[in-house]
Amino acid sequence: MLFLWNVRNEYLVLHLKITGEMDLRKITEKVADCAKSVGEFIRVERKSFSYTAVEIKGLNDLVSYVDKTSEKMLVERLSEILPEAGFIVEENTKSETKDYNWIVDPLDGTTNFIHGIPCYAISIALEFKGEIIVGVVYEVAQNECFRAFKNGGAFLNDTKISVSERTKLSDSLIATGFPIYNFSRLDNFIHTLTYLMKNTHGIRRIGAAAADLCYLACGRVDAFFEYNLNPWDVAAGALIVKEAGGTVSDFNLTQNWLFGKEIVATNTHLKEVFEKIINESFKPS
């Protein structure tokens, strides 16, 4: 592997050999540094942010210059870390897919950010031919950096993390996201919420899927489900869950969660019971 140091921005550039080998640990560290740097921009902008800067992409789908500028910054810096990679990004700053692809959400939880609710995150994943091999989620307001790489474990800042050991649904706390414009499965969703309200410690709607998954990875919640998601919402967080010992699937109990627009994630003990609940609740009537 050949390492080149870019003096101008102090980011490591990694050129792949024909074998495709790479130092995933080093890449993850550099991605985390990148996320923290752009996160500082977001943190500063939040202090003077005005609702007049909000743009409407669609029903309840909001964006601002902060999302767009953050994405441009991330694309530029990630391109320097791994020039060989393409991009799948939320705000279409750059769209070009290759064998390796950065999957980026520059501000997951935009609505929280706009309203001053302190849970919004940068989510960055590196995908290789459909498999996520690096994941970093930086929760800006709390200054919490979650990271993982394939077979390397999961970390919150410098502390290794793992999913909870709770074995009973009745002892568990569940996270989800409410539909904001696709209400085609709303009846199924309400049915699921009703059951979970009656049979768990409760349900939390945090407002950023990347954070939901990371909170599962470090044991704050025990299971998570949501539909109508995009790859940039789940790519990094799902890897962090897996490396923390958790499980990830879609509502049909297959592995089409990255591009299938739905996800179920749990600790190991709750996998069977929770997946069954979601699968049966969302079957076509």
Short description:
This protein is an alpha+beta fold and 285 residues long. The chain has 2 domains: 2-160, Fructose-1,6-Bisphosphatase, Chain A, domain 1 (2-Layer Sandwich), CATH 3.30.540; 169-281, D-Maltodextrin-Binding Protein, domain 2 (3-Layer(aba) Sandwich).
Description of the structure:
By secondary structure, the chain is an alpha+beta fold. It folds into 2 domains: 2-160, 2-Layer Sandwich (Fructose-1,6-Bisphosphatase, Chain A, domain 1); 169-281, D-Maltodextrin-Binding Protein, domain 2, CATH 3.40.190.80. It is 33% helix and 27% strand. The protein contains 7 helices and 16 strands. It has a 7-stranded mixed β-sheet, sandwiched between helices. Helix 1 runs antiparallel to helix 2 (65-81) and helix 5 (209-217) packs parallel to helix 6 (231-243). The longest helix has 24 residues, at 24-47. The relative contact order is 0.12. The model is unreliable at 1-20 (pLDDT under 50).
Task: Write the SSE topology.
Blueprint: E1 2-6, E2 11-15, H1 24-47, E3 55-58, E4 61-63, H2 65-81, E5 86-89, E6 100-108, H3 110-115, E7 121-128, E8 131-139, E9 144-149, E10 154-156, E11 159-160, E12 173-176, H4 186-199, E13 202-204, H5 209-217, E14 223-227, H6 231-243, E15 247-249, E16 262-266, H7 271-281
Parallel strand pairs: 5-6, 12-13, 12-14
Antiparallel strand pairs: 1-2, 3-4, 6-7, 7-8, 8-9, 9-10, 10-11, 14-16, 15-16
Helix pairs in contact: 1-2, 5-6
The shape is: globular
Can you write the helix and strand succession as a string? EEHEEHEEHEEEEEEHEHEHEEH
Number of strands: 16
Biggest β-sheet description: 7 strands, mixed
Helical content band: 25-40%
Strand content: 25-35%
What oligomeric state is this? Answer: single chain
> How many helix segments?
7
Q: Mean pLDDT, rounded to whole units?
A: 91
Number of domains: 2
CATH superfamily assignment of the largest domain?
Fructose-1,6-Bisphosphatase, subunit A, domain 1
- Rg from Cα: 18 Å
Level-1 CATH class name of the largest domain: Alpha Beta
Q: If strands are numbered along the chain, what order do they take across the biggest sheet?
A: 5-6-7-8-9-10-11
* CATH structural architecture of the largest domain: 2-Layer Sandwich
Query: Which structural category fits the helices and strands?
Result: alpha+beta
Distance between the termini: 54 Å
As for the CATH topology of the largest domain, it is Fructose-1,6-Bisphosphatase, Chain A, domain 1
